[in-house]
Design brief:
The protein is 50% helix and 0% strand. The model has no long low-confidence stretch (mean pLDDT 95). It has helices at 20-30, 45-59, 74-81, 88-107.
C-alpha cells in the first residue's frame, strides 16, 4: 500500500506546508479539511483566528529553524508559508496579538 501524498514529498509544498494534492490526500484519509495558509494580513475574523492560532502553536514547537547545513527546516518553511519571516518567539508574540485582535472583534 502506498503512503498518502500528504506524508510524501508529492504532497508537500517545497516552500512549506502542504500543496493542494497533499490537502486532498489528507481529507481522503482522515476526513479533515485543511485550508491553504493565510499569507498576508488577515482580512476576516476567521483568518485572524487561523493565522494567530497557527503562529502561536508553531512558534512553540520544539526544534530548530535551520539544520546542520544551514538549510531551513520544515518548521521554518511552514512559518514562512504563513508569511512570518522572524524567529519562533516573534511568531508566538504575533500569534497572540492576532488572537487578541480576533477576540476584540468578536466581542465587539
Amino acid at each position: 500500500m502506498k503512503t498518502p501524498a500528504w506524508q510524501r514529498a508529492a504532497g508537500k509544498n517545497p516552500r512549506g506546508g502542504l500543496n493542494a494534492k497533499g490537502r486532498a490526500s489528507y481529507k481522503a484519509e482522515t476526513g479533515g479539511t485543511l485550508k491553504a495558509p493565510v499569507k498576508g494580513e488577515p482580512a476576516t475574523p476567521e483568518q485572524l483566528r487561523r493565522k494567530g492560532s497557527f503562529l502561536a502553536r508553531m512558534g512553540s514547537m520544539p526544534g530548530l529553524l535551520t539544520d546542520e547545513q544551514g538549510d531551513k527546516t520544515r518548521l521554518k518553511l511552514s512559518l514562512e508559508a504563513w508569511g512570518h519571516r522572524g524567529d519562533k518567539s516573534s511568531a508566538v508574540a504575533k500569534g497572540r496579538r492576532l488572537l487578541e485582535r480576533y477576540r476584540k472583534q468578536k466581542d465587539g
